[in-house]
Write a structure and sequence with these properties.
- With 322 residues, this protein is an alpha+beta fold.
- Helices cover 39% and strands 27% of the residues.
- It folds into three domains: 33 residues; 191 residues, Roll (C8orf32 fold), CATH 3.10.620; 88 residues, Sandwich (Immunoglobulin-like).
- It is built from ten helices and 17 strands.
- The longest helix has 31 residues.
- It comes from Flavobacterium nitrogenifigens.
- Pfam families: Transglut_core.
- This is Transglutaminase-like domain-containing protein.
Length: 322
């Protein structure tokens, strides 16, 4: 009887996941057929005509921006001089700032290009016009190996929070559009749905808001945490061990890994930052948690990355004591 109940729960959850997936696909399909709009007002009118719930509207805006706006690599690598506003009247400064932001949003909408600040502001404006409560959040983001164990926070990224039925959800529409190839300095456009309504435990592993910069405890956990990737979020691969993204070990020490929801052993690999494969031994699965060890083999500090089907899951920094 218990087995049947458990089986029913799994089937029910799978049905819900499939239903949500089908619903998202339906929304994305509708949005992909949208014509060109003269301005954000016209787009918002169409969204309100086609969708009624706050959640569907929020998802629609995410889909529209990720499908239609491209990350501006040229603007990122060649940023303009920051705009300054000078006036003895604070109200006048506020007006000038609003005017400047509105013009930047119009540029992004018309050119179909922008950087994270442009993406998040555009999302905010379309969301507000569609009747949603949307905010732009500025803060730090982790994007590569060198961010593991970094000492400082940088305000170099922007994202959104949206209130849905009284609850705030997390959205990074910039990362949903694709990613930046730093070697070629070009944008790789790749629709990525996982940054819409992302689970906070994964979102805040990669984002840290300015409002929390004085929170030293959470700041340390964030900066010292592992670097996770899209597949981690897609598969809900919660990293239980190591507890930190920084592992201190002697040569020959065994380093234990435990990852939830990663029970398949096939096509699982570990590589260091030199591209050399690292042997994973004593691999076993226990209660839907994959466990294995690797050896600390080098005298210098190194980064190791776990892959499944050659898609990255998580990276760690191993600090050698010798």
């Amino acid at each position: 009887m218990i087995t049947r109940k458990i089986a029913f729960v799994f089937l029910f959850l799978n049905f819900l996941n499939l239903s949500y997936s089908q619903k998202y696909n339906a929304i994305d399909s509708i949005v992909s057929k949208y014509p060109n709009f003269a301005d954000t007002e016209k787009l918002a009118e169409r969204i309100q005509k086609d969708f009624t719930t706050e959640y569907d509207k929020a998802r629609t805006i995410y889909s529209w921006i990720t499908l239609n706006i491209e990350y501006d690599a040229k603007k990122f690598f060649n940023p303009s001089v920051p705009k300054s506003f000078i006036s003895k009247d604070p109200t006048e400064i506020d007006r000038e700032i609003k005017k400047y932001i509105d013009n930047e949003i119009k540029k992004t909408f018309r050119s179909k290009k922008g950087v994270c600040e442009d993406f998040s502001r555009l999302y905010e404006q379309i969301g507000t016009l569609s009747g949603l409560n949307v905010k732009v959040i500025n803060g730090d983001a982790k994007i590569d190996f060198n961010d593991i164990g970094r000492k400082r926070l940088y305000s170099r990224h922007a994202w959104n929070v949206v209130e849905i039925d009284g609850k705030w959800i997390l959205i990074d529409v910039t990362w949903g559009e694709g990613y930046l190839d730093y070697k070629t300095k070009t944008t790789v456009k790749e629709f990525t749905p996982v940054y819409f309504d992302t689970d906070p435990k994964y979102f805040y592993a990669l984002h840290f808001p300015e409002s929390e910069y004085k929170n030293l405890k959470d700041k340390e956990v964030y900066l010292n945490g592992p670097l996770i990737y899209n597949q981690t979020i897609e598969r809900d691969c919660e990293i239980l061990m190591p507890k930190s993204g920084i592992v201190t070990a002697n040569i020959g020490d065994e380093i234990l890994f435990k990852i939830k929801n990663l029970s398949e052993f096939d096509d699982l690999y570990c590589f260091d930052d030199d591209g050399q494969e690292i042997e994973m031994f004593d691999v076993r699965e226990k209660n839907n948690v994959l466990e294995f060890e690797i050896l600390c083999q080098k005298k210098r500090n190194q980064f190791v990355t776990l892959y499944r089907h050659y898609k990255a899951i998580a990276s760690f920094k191993i600090i050698s004591k010798q």
